[in-house]
Amino acid sequence: MKPAAFQYFDPQSVTDAVARLREHGGAAKVLAGGQSLLPLMNLRLVRPAVVVDINRIASLAYIRESHGTLTLGALTRLSAVEGSDVVRRHVPLLAEAAAHVGHLAIRHRGTIGGNLAHADPASEIPAALLALEGHVVATGPRGERTIAAADLFKGPLTTALDPAELLTEVRVPIDPPGSGSAFLEVSRREGDYALVGVAVLLQKDGGRCARARLGLCGVGGTALRMREAETILESAGVTDDALPAVALAVERAVAPSDDVQASADYRRHVAGVLTVRAVRKAWQRAQEGGR
Ligand SMILES: Cc1cc2nc3c(=O)[nH]c(=O)nc-3n(C[C@H](O)[C@H](O)[C@H](O)COP(=O)(O)OP(=O)(O)OC[C@H]3O[C@@H](n4cnc5c(N)ncnc54)[C@H](O)[C@@H]3O)c2cc1C
What we know:
The protein has helices at residues 14-24, 37-42, 78-83, 85-90, 92-98, 104-109, 112-118, 124-131, 149-152, 227-236, 243-253, 264-287, and strands spanning 7-9, 28-31, 50-53, 63-66, 69-73, 135-140, 143-148, 153-155, 158-159, 166-173, 179-186, 196-205, 208-217, 224-225. The protein is of the alpha+beta class. A hairpin with a 2-residue loop joins strand 12 (196-205) and strand 13 (208-217). It is globular and about 60 Å long. The structure holds flavin-adenine dinucleotide (FAD).
């Protein structure tokens, strides 16, 4: 199918883009990589009266590292995140999660900002951002504000962004020394959305697990942080005795539903199993001194 008619703008600056969004309010949609928006428009599940294409705003595509923070412009393609030496060196979890998004052709167009703004509950990047305790910068008519990953995802395809706000930057703390991370997922086919995805970031201090952060996708209305499981790992460590309790805590915390892909029971079970595997892998990487 073809999309319903719409007015098209391709501003050259963030200021102009925000002005267009403000002018047209909820009737406008931002176009980034188009990998989610265009299928929805073609199926006429979404009919924006106005499309604001941000692809000509070159200043929105960058990856930088400074003062302990990795910053990525919203228009950074997911293939650039996956392939960036800076990302791999400083926040490997983000590169590993990005590599699980769709196929390479999709990652060449899809952007980190679009992926987060789309807020698909099965998307990998939101789960990684939760585990990394990252933030996004939203730029609107009144200027910039920072939104923590924990406050960004409000429901399926729903975020805390206002209709007149553009997600302009993603900020992630650089892994501290002693870190190990892993992203694992189960999907029906290579390149599909995750049935269950698990992002783990651990920090080792001697033999102790000083810090554990777990984000899951595919098992609720949004990506979910697993706080009880984190507490178990931080108090009992990554041990054979503690891991069954971690799996149980995850099974209790997730809220999957039945759909054509898998039953809720299956997703809940896989969430526990996959979390234990991801924790073991992240811990092994932390022990090897790699991240
Ligand atoms: C076959 C296929 C398989 C896929 N598999 C996966 C997968 O496994 N995992 C996964 O996570 N995704 C998957 N995707 C989706 C893909 O990753 C998209 O790139 C991503 O979800 C949206 O990014 P985009 O840049 O294409 O955004 P767009 O499609 O351009 O926009 C998506 C939404 O975000 C809004 N938006 C975009 N950028 C901004 C911004 N800067 N500020 C405010 N709002 C903004 C748009 O208005 C729209 O509502 C798949 C897509 C396809 C077609």
